[in-house]
Amino acid sequence: MKFAHIADAHLGREQFQQPFRYADYVEAFRKAVERSIRENVDFILLTGDLFHVSKPSPKAIRDAIEILNLAKKRNIPVFAIEGNHDKTIRDTSIYDLLEHLGLIYTVGIKRRPRENEFQRSIKKGSAYLVYGIFGDVEIYGIRHHSRWQLVGKDGRSRLKALFHGKRNSILMLHQAIDYLAEGTPYQNAFDLRLNEIPDGFSYYAFGHIHMRRELERKKSGFTGDMIYPGSLERTEIREASHRIIYDRRIRAMDLTRSNENFGPNAKGFYIVEDFEPEFVEIETRPFYSITIRGNSKEELRRKIEDIRSYVERDSIAILTLEGIVKGGIHVSEFFSLLEDWGLAYYNFNNRVTSEAILIDSSIKEEEFFTAFERELFAQLAVDPKEFGRDIEGFVSWLFQMYEKPKVEAEKKVKIEEEEPKGKEKTEKTKEIKEKKVKKPKKALGTLDVWIKKGGGK
């Protein structure tokens, strides 16, 4: 048994508002599917964020259909879950169109059952848990959810109540796991802790974190390896293929290589045979993260010219200028230096100051911020677009934080009201004590419906 594990293709994205980046993302996904076919895989897993937005352009939909059809023509089923970029506030998404065309088979909680060659259903309250099947392999999963939806107020994992792993089973999730999120944008804004993941599965196919992460079963104590393939293309500067730092000397690093192995920023996907994963690299456009430090405009210009031979043509280069320069600088003064380098795209970050800023390192954050403020900063430590898509989860968390003070305040107001006399006073006091504060009703998603009906017990 052999399958491919692909994540975070983000089709439709024009990074830096550059049309050539749209083509790069499409080409990376095409390479992954074509390589999977050449490897004679039995099926393919797509663990979320096939598209960059939940309402992709007709062009992006067309490209996705064309590439997924390559697998369909060879009778290779594709099992998929929706990522945070794919899902909508409704039950339906662009995945429903792809499934209707027979290009993918989605798994997760559905309002209607699915029974066919590659899907089965289990009744869960008023909903159905739809899972994939290929031979004796069962494929479970759920679309992206916020932490407050996955973990109850009592701290219990709802995933553990929903999923029960067994031999030859796979769990697909599009969530950030705390233990594997270190060094990523999600390290302080994770969705799940490692001990909240249900055990018993032979393989854990994850998506959402764009940097490749592996946690072997012998290290985790789980029954299967946990794998994040990372995004197929480079979505931000932390995923750069090359790092150049020029202070006193030039230090150039290829982040796609580490001795004779793949480096942390190599891009690709996994081929998994008998639940043993092997990374397959995809060649993508070189992406350079360059830091240059200098204390004058002349020094910065000279150092930019010095690194020219280290940067490949037709690549992407993001240069960060640092230092202390009298009067400061404007990056527009340096753009002309790169005009004839033959780069596909380049830009500057300006971190040059006009005078030294002294910081007292002995001061701790606790001296400035309350526990609530520090937690608020952690909640907000995500990409603005990501925050916008998950605003419902943030609002729910905020309501929970303010719930207790609000109840106490309402009780205090009632106590301070004019007290009735005699028997009336006793009955009124009892009424106030027994009165409960009603919470505002909220729309329930499919997972919430299942929990509401007692499925989370």
**Overall number of structural domains:** 3
3D shape: globular
By DSSP (H or I, 4+ residues per run), the number of helices equals: 12
Helix content: 25-40%
CATH homology group of the largest domain: Metallo-dependent phosphatases
Structural class comes to: alpha/beta
The biggest beta sheet reads: 8 strands, mixed
Using the CA coordinates, give the radius of gyration: 26 Å
Q: What's the multimeric state?
A: single chain
Strand content: 15-25%
The CATH topology of the largest domain is given as: Purple Acid Phosphatase, chain A, domain 2
Q: Can you identify the CATH class of the largest domain?
A: Alpha Beta
Number of strand segments: 21
Unreliable stretches, pLDDT < 50, 5 or more residues?
Answer: none
What separation lies between the terminal Cα atoms?
35 Å
Tell me what you see in this structure.
- This protein has 457 residues and is an alpha/beta fold.
- It folds into three domains: 2-234 and 258-281, Metallo-dependent phosphatases (Purple Acid Phosphatase, chain A, domain 2), CATH 3.60.21.10; 235-257 and 286-356, 2-Layer Sandwich (Translation Initiation Factor IF3), CATH 3.30.110; 366-455, no CATH class.
- The chain is built from twelve helices and 21 strands.
- The chain has helices spanning 19-38, 58-73, 94-100, 147-150, 158-162, 217-220, 297-306, 371-380, 384-389, 391-416, 422-434, 446-455, and strands at residues 2-6, 43-47, 78-81, 105-106, 108-110, 119-124, 127-134, 137-142, 169-174, 203-207, 213-215, 225-228, 242-246, 250-254, 257-258, 261-262, 268-273, 276-281, 287-293, 316-324, 345-353.
- The strands form four sheets. Strands 5, 6, 7, 8, 9, 10, 11 and 12 form an eight-stranded mixed sheet that branches.
- The longest helix has 26 residues, at 391-416.
- 36% of the residues are buried.
- The model has no long low-confidence stretch (mean pLDDT 88).
